[in-house]
Amino acid sequence: MHADQPQPRSAYRAFSLLPTRWMDNDIYGHVNNVNYYSFFDTAIAHYLMREGGLNPWKSEVIGFCVESSCRFRKAVQFPDSITAGIRVKKIGRSSVQYEIGLFRNDDEETSADGYFVHVFVERKSEKSKPLPEPIRLALMNLLMPAD
Amino acid sequence: MHADQPQPRSAYRAFSLLPTRWMDNDIYGHVNNVNYYSFFDTAIAHYLMREGGLNPWKSEVIGFCVESSCRFRKAVQFPDSITAGIRVKKIGRSSVQYEIGLFRNDDEETSADGYFVHVFVERKSEKSKPLPEPIRLALMNLLMPAD
Amino acid sequence: MHADQPQPRSAYRAFSLLPTRWMDNDIYGHVNNVNYYSFFDTAIAHYLMREGGLNPWKSEVIGFCVESSCRFRKAVQFPDSITAGIRVKKIGRSSVQYEIGLFRNDDEETSADGYFVHVFVERKSEKSKPLPEPIRLALMNLLMPAD
Amino acid sequence: MHADQPQPRSAYRAFSLLPTRWMDNDIYGHVNNVNYYSFFDTAIAHYLMREGGLNPWKSEVIGFCVESSCRFRKAVQFPDSITAGIRVKKIGRSSVQYEIGLFRNDDEETSADGYFVHVFVERKSEKSKPLPEPIRLALMNLLMPAD
């Protein structure tokens, strides 16, 4: 599922700037692997809220993460700043698979990249639901031509 | 790479008890997906330190995460307690692939499971190194008969 | 507001066991100061849910933190386990001040101690409300004789 | 020790921009109290590294937090962005007391403010040491005229 090579910025469609925090660094002096997944879900949530109308406090249909993965290629360390790029690989009836690339400072290639799968569910019953239309439209803008 | 089905406790060889924390719960009232990866690397570090003699403050050879992944099957929420089971899938010259299962309270099947790959490197040069012998021996105890 | 000296276990009334996690350690090899506050609010939430009937998903009246503080006396490091002790200093109409001590492994004196103030509010309006009776009763059990 | 009132931006001398992350929000839909302390120590570390020459990977003399405190005045929630302002209240031989204010988006008054005390120690012995001269000079620039 993972790309063999680091990815360029042109492989992504929407971007978020995510500065690192002091406590992201672990005992080895690098951003701990766990925090990369926070960059992933922050970038995705930014996009869904800004472009898809998701309201995490009130929306009846919300996204649950059902699978994620990251390949770590090059260390990042506070006070580096991360630019997270996202694209959409596949849109299903009630699910979407994102691919995310993390760029350190001005780097042109990903320091880490991976994927993240959302299933949309009704908040109360937690049963899967079709993607709300504004979200589907927003996600279609993240499909890459080659896909 | 992921199992199709939840895994039983008998599929793992070493276990750590990892209570959840209040702030692990996110706005949807479940443990956020990011924290699962902290359960993964805590369980692995516990084992390497306890059984393999890893000293994160001083060892010349340390493990860097190069890839990880999780499939989320069932929600967990504070104040649930997690039991993390680990096993080893493959041991290479300088790398090891772990598989981890997370069990909610007394559940017999995983709420989430995934994998995590360590490459061992020299702390200063960050160049890959063969697994230190005490670590290799400890990891061999986590291989499953079926493997 | 802080005690001059480390506190003994006998200075607290209810206890939670809180193992550290790998990523709690920061670049200096100690549990980062930020995480101590997670031990504080986890210990308090445990108690309110277990003894006071707080249901964070549904209760109409919930607690917001309005002030907290910690004095750090001695370093703690993963894989240490923390025992958090709590007591109540003062109960008001809609607020409560807790004091918390964190004990490293089997230590008899606090490695860190501090306080935490909750104001109880109606979930929707976020206006302050009197402490719900079951919570008030549970908190009274945490008052120390000397107080 | 805490100000009675929210503080204005003019009460601080150096600023860092710190976007919130999805997982900062807790079950009540606000940034959890714990994360505010990460804003505190990130803002301070930024300044010490940028202006005082602190190198967390190598410096012989490093800062340990011995006390911190925060008063929470108004909720903040992802995707708000925080501007952290810092000033210095007191410089001792081997310690410094910072005061920090957190501003939500374009707000003119603090949503939260507090203090943080560093003691500088020799990395290996963990014995207190005089403030390194470049750090002392950088910190003097954060003293407020009124002090």
Radius of gyration of chain A: 15 Å
Total discrete domains of chain A: 1
Q: Could you state the oligomeric state of the chains shown?
A: homotetramer
E-strand count of chain A: 5
Q: What's a concise summary of this model?
A:
Chain A is α+β, with helices and mostly antiparallel strands.
Description:
With 147 residues, chain A is α+β, with helices and mostly antiparallel strands. Chain A has two helices and five strands. Chain A has helices at 33-51, 133-140, and strands at residues 14-19, 61-72, 81-91, 95-104, 112-122. The longest helix of chain A is centred in the first third of the chain and has 19 residues, at 33-51. The first copy, chain A, is globular. The two termini of chain A are 14 Å apart. The model of chain A has no long low-confidence stretch (mean pLDDT 96).
